[in-house]
Amino acid sequence: MDFYNELEKYKNIVENELKKVLNELDLPQQEIVESMRYSLLSGGKRLRPILLIKSCELFGGNIKSAIKLSIAMEMIHTYSLIHDDLPAMDDDDYRRGQLTNHKVYDESIAILAGDSLLNYAYELMIDEVIANDYSKKYVDAMNIIAKSSGYKGMIGGQVVDIISEKKQIDDKTLNFIHKYKTSKLIEASIIAGSIIGGANTQEINTLKKYSEYIGISFQIKDDILDIVGDKNILGKDIGSDIDKKKSTYVSIYGMERAKSDLNMYKEKAVNIMRKFESDESFFFIDLAEYLTKRVN
């Protein structure tokens, strides 16, 4: 399996499914649909929906059984980015090389677009639960996604990140931010997919550790790229964390420690996936390598 071809293949599958949603025309509220599509179809790695599909396949599932929840996951991720870019939060002008949603549609529409994407994600997941005769595995998968997105998950991490700005924080607080703000949706994608695919409790617990390690390494890499990345490749301004006096892995531990720990977490993730005998596990091993070497 060529990892990059596989990644591109699944990214295209996700992109095609995303283009099928939000096609309503000539509605009084058409502007909100346009705003939702503007951010949802703005590109990106589509990491979370791909992880959901691939983790389902890891246990014998297929794309059809995972695609709706994967699209819902990308909607939740996109809503979080729209809100994260708002002036009241990170106040960013660019995302993925284009103007942020509130710069194009104004703050009120951007807020409602984020709200609408979150709500629509739950509509899609509920429809999928019903379509599968209220199957427990779909209910459990939806429950994981819901809990990981809320105040006990991603939002909780965002809150601690916000209240920690311009403060000296300890490593425990930083680890909480990374684990919840970044890792929780990655973990939810992998665990939800594995549940749909038929993983047992032991396999799910093993994947939780893998998810945590790649989630932390993903955020460490983001912190590194905020200092040494290329603005044209990243699609956003460099040094924004420094300007906002945010505590990051680099600001607390230094660049060398950040690079060393990035590699350490990657190795931990790789070693976990070697426990699985399925050929699909090689994708997750290569993914851990890819996330440490990415430039955007």
UniProtKB/TrEMBL annotation:
**Reactions catalysed, as given in the entry:** isopentenyl diphosphate + (2E)-geranyl diphosphate = (2E,6E)-farnesyl diphosphate + diphosphate
One Pfam family of this protein, by short name? polyprenyl_synt
Q: Which domain of life is it from?
A: Bacteria
Q: Which UniProt keywords apply?
A: Isoprene biosynthesis, Magnesium, Metal-binding, Transferase
Which cofactors does it use? Mg(2+)
EC number per UniProt: 2.5.1.10
| Single GO molecular function | (2E,6E)-farnesyl diphosphate synthase activity
Q: Sorted alphabetically, which PROSITE patterns does this protein's record hold?
A: POLYPRENYL_SYNTHASE_1 (PS00723), POLYPRENYL_SYNTHASE_2 (PS00444)
Which Gene Ontology terms describe the biological processes this protein takes part in? terpenoid biosynthetic process
Question: Which cellular components does GO assign to this protein?
Answer: cytoplasm
InterPro entries in alphabetical order:
Isoprenoid_synthase_dom_sf (IPR008949), Polyprenyl_synt (IPR000092), Polyprenyl_synt_CS (IPR033749), Prenyl_diphosphate_synthase (IPR053378)
Entry's family note: Belongs to the FPP/GGPP synthase family.
Name under which the protein is recorded: Farnesyl diphosphate synthase
Please report the organism this UniProt entry assigns to the protein. Answer: Senegalia massiliensis
Taxonomic lineage of the native organism: Bacteria, Bacillati, Bacillota, Clostridia, Eubacteriales
